[in-house]
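tmp note - Cell division protein FtsX
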Amino acid sequence: MSAPTAPASARPSRPNSRLGTWFDHHVYSLVASVGRMLRKPWATALTIGVMAVAITLPLGLWAALGNVERFTGTVEQSRQISLFLKPQVTVDRARALADQLRGRGDIATLDLRTPEQGMEELRRSSGLGEAISAVDGNPLPSVLIVTPKDDETTLAESLRTLPDVDVVQHDAAWRQRLDQWLRFGVRLAWVLAALLGVGALLVVGNTVRLDIQSRRDEIAVLQQLGATDGFIRRPFLYLGLSYGLVAGLLALALLTAADHALREPLAALAQSYGSQFALHGFDLRDAIAIVIGSGLLGWIGAGLVTGHYLRQTRPTT
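out:
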């Protein structure tokens, strides 16, 4: 007969593994940090609101710049060269010239727009169909739309010398100025992101510092008992992380609200110019990156403040 087993209450408890204890403390720190945020709703709302605004401003500028780039068209479209042929050049001669130019190595694509096609497009886009129909004849010339392969400036100067070409329309200067403005805007967005990111770090750091001051006696006891800096720092790191994650979600909500507020009137304005342009916001991958980045911002701010405090109060041996 086997020996009777001891009741469960009389068995010695098996100590938890080190990994289990580490995991339990992480979970406890996260839950406790969220609880501390909920116990101070107004201070929490103020901190999250300031962080959300600091995150929203550079992100909104980046989104605006991305939509400006889409609105101005693709790079290939902005590099196009329009050759307005002389009025006496017939359509057959224009087709022959187009076939001849397509054989050049410095031209990627070439499209011919006949006077009839130009008149029809003008009638559709201008809203003056009846007035245009009353005009005798067709005063529009044939137009060759050229997309260069390499340097559009050199190609435009070469095409200007063709005997059948009357006017060469090339928007290289306008495109270069636009590119410079866009580069300036991107640099401005980075500068704003850096400055406002520092501001968000300061906001989180000051909030965590106040929380540390309210718990300094508890921290002192833990240090006397031999608790490691990582053990003491962990709840405050999760506090900063929680602030950052919620601020990132609020920033996305603000950007989404701005997108919905501007999308309809901007689409109506673009449609009045014959364009199908519509605002594009952040996709799911961008949204996840924004939330994670703001969470890391809060984590770093809390880590800097807590680390500085622990270095100042570490007991001497």
